[in-house]
Design brief:
Order of helices and strands: EHEHHHEHEEEEEEEEHEEEEEEE
Oligomer: single chain
Distance between the termini: 6 Å
Largest sheet: 16 strands, antiparallel, barrel
CATH architecture of the largest domain: Beta Barrel
Number of domains: 2
Number of helices: 6
CATH class of the largest domain: Mainly Beta
Helix content: 10-25%
Radius of gyration: 24 Å
């Protein structure tokens, strides 16, 4: 179930005449809301003539219909984000009044499960295989033997979201999976680049249940949002994610806005603040220490050389159908925080020091879904404080993703992406390594129902070892999988 938090306006007064302005059948919001209601079966009971191009509706009618439909929606799309943003004031008033009613019901129905907590679930099955090709016969045979068989892996997420005032949200994610290093889908193999976005395995091993995330956020005024927690991800505290790719991510490296060093998704003890004024400006700053739960300063803590920390600032803008953002992260090396790099670049990142990671990304989504795809692109450049010759000083990355949504009018989608992971471009002393390679993926999401989807996908890594590929030899990786997703 989808949960969206708004700032309720206690005793709200109508502050603008625009709140009484009708939403016309020719408006984008009218048409987008019509498609949403029909797709999720929320149209039943609406008087004849509504959403048939015959008459307008008020903004409060539109917001009430959108609010009623949110309980049936299991994933946030770019169009849904646009509707929520457009009617955020009306939704805040409606949900503020609903919160007071639900609070009273909670008193009457105690000790039942909290009426202010929403529980959602996500289960993913992946059946797939990898095949290694090339002229490096011994390397090909070795990897096909160890990592070339068909595997069946799964991931379970239970997401609980609790609001105590209507202006805050406590998020708890309980997770279990068996995507370990024994499979390329979980980071195994000659490189980590075949890791799937959905892969997870707890530190205790396969199928162990763990708290993946636990953090609290609340509004300060109407535009500032403060977040902190013992298990919070960098991405949970950003005001903007400048990509519409993809509805059903495959390779994790191609889902990070072309800058996997800057968008490192560091997870641990952290805090952040974001500012989202109505103008579309988006500003964020956050800090995460992966080892922040440890009290021994030689092993972790907050703000030490062993804390495995990353500090991030982001500046962006978003409007109807587009978004653009720049980001900077200062990342501690030696802790595996930049996971998607070539083995040659990763050797440098494994040494102690700091990497200054920069990224620029943006997206455009057409007003009408169908055969014109959304376009998302990003680029990253990173500088490390290397002092020795032949060590990496600069590396780069980029990606381009295309997605066709709502194909054939049945909620199906398709997409493809191409890019390069973090790869070395300059060495101390002026040499240029041959570390480049290309990553490709193609997928088709088949919408079985609002709760079930099936996604066959293929990906190709042209040179997963980069600079470490033997001179005159070739080594490639091809993967194929079927991902089945259940949402509840």
């Amino acid at each position: 179930m989808l949960s969206v938090a708004f700032a309720p306006l206690a005793g709200a007064q109508v502050s603008s005449v625009s709140q009484f302005t009708g939403v016309m059948p020719t408006d984008w919001a009218y048409q987008t809301l019509q498609n949403l209601l029909e797709k999720h079966g929320c149209i039943a009971g609406i008087p004849k003539g509504r959403f048939q191009g015959q008459e307008s509706i008020s903004r409060y009618e539109a917001a009430a219909l959108l609010n009623a439909c949110l309980g049936r929606i299991t994933e946030i799309t770019y169009e849904l984000k646009g509707l929520i943003h457009a009617f955020r004031s009306e939704l805040a008033i409606i949900q503020g009044r609903m919160d007071s009613v639900e609070a009273r019901l909670g008193e009457l129905e105690a000790p039942r499960f909290s009426t202010t907590t929403k529980l959602g679930g996500l289960v993913t099955f992946v059946v797939g295989t990898n095949r290694f090709l090339g002229s490096s016969d011994a390397l090909v045979d070795q990897n096909n033997q160890i990592f070339g068989a068909t595997s069946f892996n799964s991931d379970l997420q239970l997401i609980m979201e609790t609001s105590f005032s209507g202006r805050d949200l406590l998020t708890t994610v309980i997770r279990s999976g068996n995507f370990g290093s024994e499979t390329p889908f979980g980071g195994g193999g000659p490189s980590s680049l075949a890791t799937l976005e959905t892969s997870y395995e707890a530190d205790g091993g396969a199928n162990q249940v763990a708290f993946d995330k636990l953090f609290y956020s609340f509004l300060i005024g109407e535009e500032l949002n403060l977040t902190f927690g013992s298990q919070v991800g960098q991405e949970d505290m950003l005001a903007i994610w400048p990509s519409a790719y993809s509805s059903d991510p495959i390779l994790d490296v191609l889902s990070l806005n072309g800058a996997p060093a800057a968008y490192n998704k560091n997870l641990g003890a952290g805090a952040g603040i974001s500012w989202s004024p109505p103008s579309g400006l988006r500003v964020s700053a956050n800090y995460v220490a992966a080892n922040g739960a440890l009290s021994n300063s030689s092993e972790g803590c907050i703000g030490t050389d062993q804390s495995a920390n990353a500090g991030t600032v982001q500046l962006g803008w978003e409007g109807e159908g587009w978004a653009l953002a720049g980001i900077y992260s200062k990342v501690q090396n030696g802790h595996g925080l930049i996971g998607y790099a070539t083995p040659f670049a990763q050797d440098q990142l494994s040494e102690h020091g700091v990497t200054h990671a920069f990224g620029l990304g943006g997206t455009f989504q057409p007003p009408d879904s169908g055969w014109i795809p959304s376009v998302s692109a990003g680029w990253g450049v990173n500088n490390s404080d290397s002092q020795q010759n032949d060590k990496v000083t600069t590396n780069q990355s980029w990606s381009l993703g295309l997605e066709w949504s709502d194909l054939w009018g049945d909620g199906h989608a398709a997409g493809m992406a191409v890019g390069q992971p973090v790869f070395a471009t300059d060495l101390k002393g002026g040499d240029t390594p041959a570390d480049g390679q290309f990553l490709w993926e193609w997928w088709l999401l088949l919408h079985v129902s609002d709760a079930i989807s099936v996604t066959p996908a293929v990906f190709y890594l042209s040179r997963p070892l980069g600079q470490n590929t033997a001179a005159g030899e070739s080594f490639r990786q091809l993967g194929a999988l079927v991902k089945t997703t259940f949402r509840f």
